[in-house]
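Work Package 3 (structural annotation) set out to generate three-dimensional models for the target panel prioritized at the project kickoff. During this period the team completed the workflow that converts sequence records into discrete structure tokens, so that structures can be stored uniformly alongside our sequence database. As a representative example, we reproduce one entry of 163 residues exactly as it appears in the project archive.
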Amino acid sequence: MAERTPQQTAERVRDGMWRNDRASKLLGMHVDAVGPGTATITMTVRDDMLNGHDICHGGLITTLADSAFAYACNTYNDFTVASGFAMDLLAPARKDDVLRATCFEVNKAGRTGVYDCEVTNQRSELIAVFRGRSYTIKGKPVVADDGSSPTLHGHPHVVIPRG
């Protein structure tokens, strides 16, 4: 079997993750693009996403950025989780806005990585910035050779460090 290119690996991982990504699907997200260390996801702000100020709930904007982060840091087919993140909300998002979270790798060394994400609206206005820290689980692929998607559930040797 021919070895996959980094782009083919990223797309295969995207497909494997998407099969089980109930949270992103529930919020109407779409994975628009992936590449080695990068991902772009969009979400349209619906009426049920608005808070008491009639703007998009900040937690949902954070979820969009976190989803882009998850896809970006898993594109190498090494099972990677968030070890933390920071989010800055810069402007409100409103009903019917199409939010685009674009995430890219800043640094990856050993088991840890740093990723930045910008969330913009359909007018390219900056809504939020996100910085995520990742931790890779050694020896665990996101998508197995047979195309299945293993999970952490029931994996007794996984210890995710704090901090």
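The chain is about 20% helix and 35% strand.
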